[in-house]
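Backbone-to-sequence.
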């Protein structure tokens, strides 16, 4: 009975009530045993993943890569097993996939525990790399093997047995029981709770903290690999969309199941019930309500049975809200003892005390200077430039440009290419401007790409569907971006929710709302005066009847766009505010040591809130520019752009731990990302006249690796000055040998 508590009983009661709601809405589906079987079958895969995620979250970490791990292992199995590829037997292919899952978990663990990369950055990067590998290996196509699968017992795991339920449920039950016993009754579980509750105390108690955290990630990835095999055995094939969005459902399941995002609290049984609850909510939302519609065909009225369903995007948006609500349950409901206080208020009794919210008495410095920073004092000219944190990004921009000129001199230096580069640069650069403030604060904003999509959807919908004026559409789009930023800031500062969790929820909410607003369609046909925002100056002047005729002015107007000028204005203002005003110094102080900044009289919550609002506003502006440039809106707008923007800030000298970052550096970092993307898509002409272009499916793999290298470089080269430390130790060893030699003489 220690494995199950009151929280789990409450989840069961709520699920029963929700199922009754499903029966009332759609008795045809939820009133049959097929509904229960479908819910349990889908719960099985997410439940297995939730078992592994529980170990990670109790450890005070987070694994955003489980969806990509599921997809990648499923694709790997399909490539190994499919007769159109390697044609291996099922068992060896499955064992290789499980080994791949363990390897991904090991990499995540090493990045977090040994290389000190924040878990949300390490696993976010692995998410994008894994998704890029899935697209690259499948080529965006389906790999199927229905006929070959019939002769292998492994595929019975995805079949319905003689008792009428899917065998995946049995796999789920095994993982749930084993996971619950291991976490609650073994040394592995005790160490996990100890590390998550107080890592420093666990280390003093003799626990190998690094090994425990690595083990947690390996368990999580192994469970995701098993879930991938469960998917493959059911579908007898794989698509490039496998596992997409699964991380949201799994994290929400574990948090709904009673785990604390701050670590040290959570149970496997609760996580499994949380998975069942989230899947049930998803089913209720997706199945729709049976309705009868009357249509007229050839003058005859006919009644047609149909389903009234939520529009595209509604479900992920709702699940994003569930994630945020679930994260708030532990600190505000459990620790705040809300139900006990409510009962005391109703009965007139003395209210019980709130539980200790936890936390630490002292917040250490998150960023610190290095010997390189010290040597920069008093440096002049070239040495002073080389000591700047953004110097590497600026040098890299020049180097990448020269590479492009070397590969394709006939194309790279043309005005058309320059114009296209500036347009692509503007979108990433705008996002990176807002993120510079957020990251310098020590926060993160994972929602900028989705907020771009939401703002673009609002602008497009207002003009196309409502016939609104372009100025009204732009105003509403910018307001939506600022509102999303304010919501992120409110959750982060008012409810003390980690910024990566708050913005992860907004990542799904904004993306879902964008698809909901446009009903998953592409919109186009906007007023030309709006489209001018995405055009070059020549087209703008031509629209107003004053096109340049010849000379340098003609060349300039063809190469410079309206959005480039807008970016220049915003970047100039943002750079002045960050580098030359008291608010900018407050941003750096807050990111360097929030507690010390608060003691110095800085309203750190206000600083963090305004920075997130500015980030949302920049994303909103980028959304407007996207729609104007393409003259249409697609719900996939801004997809994965958050990775580009974060990488831009880190490459440009910002620190993921806060306290550093410049606008010039972020712009240089955005230029690096833009040039790399352009080079990877460049058609290279070979000496024999042939040409080749790198497949675009692999683009995210390169960008993810670049971000990972940039973060590791910041931690070890900038923060820990590993080269300086290595040189100091060599000098000390040499001095010791010299002293020993002089004594021997």
């Amino acid at each position: 009975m220690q494995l199950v508590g009151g929280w789990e009983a409450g989840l069961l009661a709520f699920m029963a009530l929700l199922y009754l709601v499903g029966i009332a809405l759609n008795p045809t589906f939820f009133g049959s045993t097929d509904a229960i079987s479908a819910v349990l079958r889908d719960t099985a895969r997410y439940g297995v993943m939730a078992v592994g995620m529980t170990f990670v979250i109790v450890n005070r970490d987070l694994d955003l890569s489980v969806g990509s791990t599921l997809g990648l292992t499923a694709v790997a199995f399909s490539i190994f097993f499919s007769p159109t590829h390697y044609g291996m037997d099922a068992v060896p292919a499955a064992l290789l996939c499980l080994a791949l899952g363990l390897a991904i978990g090991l990499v995540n663990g090493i990045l977090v525990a040994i290389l000190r990369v924040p878990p949300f950055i390490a696993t976010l990067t692995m998410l994008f790399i894994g998704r890029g590998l899935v697209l690259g290996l499948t080529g965006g196509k389906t790999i199927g093997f229905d006929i070959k699968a019939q002769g292998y017992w492994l595929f019975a795991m995805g079949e319905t047995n003689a008792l009428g339920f899917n065998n995946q449920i049995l796999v789920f039950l095994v993982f749930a029981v084993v996971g619950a016993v291991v976490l609650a009754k073994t040394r592995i579980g005790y160490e996990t709770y100890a590390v998550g509750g107080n890592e420093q105390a666990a280390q003093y108690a003799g626990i190998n903290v690094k090994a425990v955290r690595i083990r947690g990630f390996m368990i999580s990835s192994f469970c995701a690999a098993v879930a991938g095999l469960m998917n493959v055995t059911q579908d007898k094939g794989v698509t490039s969309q496998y596992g997409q969005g699964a991380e949201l459902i799994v994290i929400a399941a574990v948090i709904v199941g009673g785990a604390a995002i701050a670590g040290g609290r959570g149970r496997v049984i609760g996580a499994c019930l949380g998975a069942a609850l989230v899947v049930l909510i998803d089913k209720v939302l997706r199945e729709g309500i049976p309705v009868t519609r009357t249509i007229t065909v050839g003058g005859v009225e006919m009644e047609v049975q149909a389903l009234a369903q939520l529009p595209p995007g509604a479900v992920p948006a709702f699940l994003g809200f569930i994630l945020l609500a679930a994260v708030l349950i532990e600190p505000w409901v459990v620790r705040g003892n809300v139900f006990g206080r409510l009962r005391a208020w109703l009965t007139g009794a003395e209210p019980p005390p709130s539980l200790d919210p936890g936390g630490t008495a002292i917040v250490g410095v998150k960023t610190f200077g290095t010997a390189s920073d010290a040597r920069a004092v008093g440096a002049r000219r070239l040495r002073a430039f080389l000591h700047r944190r953004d110097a590497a990004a600026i040098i890299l921009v020049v180097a990448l440009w020269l590479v492009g000129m070397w590969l394709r001199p006939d194309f790279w230096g043309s005005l058309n290419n320059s114009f296209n580069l500036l347009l692509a640069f503007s979108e990433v650069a705008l996002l990176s401007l807002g993120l510079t403030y957020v990251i310098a604060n020590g926060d993160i904003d994972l929602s900028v790409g989705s907020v771009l999509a939401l703002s673009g959807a609002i602008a497009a919908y207002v003009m196309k569907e409502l016939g609104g004026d372009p100025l009204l559409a732009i105003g509403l789009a910018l307001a939506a971006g600022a509102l999303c930023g304010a919501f992120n800031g409110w959750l982060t500062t008012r409810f003390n929710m980690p910024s990566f969790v708050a913005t992860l929820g907004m990542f799904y909410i904004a993306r879902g709302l964008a698809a909901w607003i446009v009903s998953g369609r592409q919109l186009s046909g906007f007023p030309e005066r709006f489209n001018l925002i995405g055009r070059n100056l020549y087209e703008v002047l031509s629209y107003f009847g004053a096109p340049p005729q010849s000379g340098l002015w003609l060349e300039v107007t063809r190469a410079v766009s309206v959005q480039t000028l807008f970016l220049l204005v915003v970047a100039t203002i943002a750079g002045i505010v960050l580098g030359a005003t008291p608010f900018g110094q407050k941003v750096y102080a807050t990111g360097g040591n929030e507690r010390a900044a608060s003691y110095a009289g800085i309203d750190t919550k206000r600083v963090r809130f305004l920075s997130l609002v500015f980030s949302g506003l920049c994303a909103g502006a980028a959304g407007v520019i996207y729609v104007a440039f393409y003259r249409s809106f697609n719900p996939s707008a801004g997809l994965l752009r958050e990775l580009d923007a974060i990488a831009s800030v880190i490459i440009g000298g910002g620190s993921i731990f806060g306290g550093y970052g410049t606008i010039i550096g972020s712009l240089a970092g955005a230029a690096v990302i833009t040039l790399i993307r352009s080079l990877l898509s460049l058609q290279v002409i070979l000496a024999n006249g042939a040409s080749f272009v790198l497949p675009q499916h692999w683009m995210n793999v390169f960008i993810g690796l670049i971000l990972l290298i940039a973060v590791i470089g910041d931690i070890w080269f900038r923060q820990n000055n590993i080269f300086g430390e290595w040189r100091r130790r060599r000098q000390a060893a040499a001095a010791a040998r010299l002293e020993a030699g002089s004594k021997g003489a």
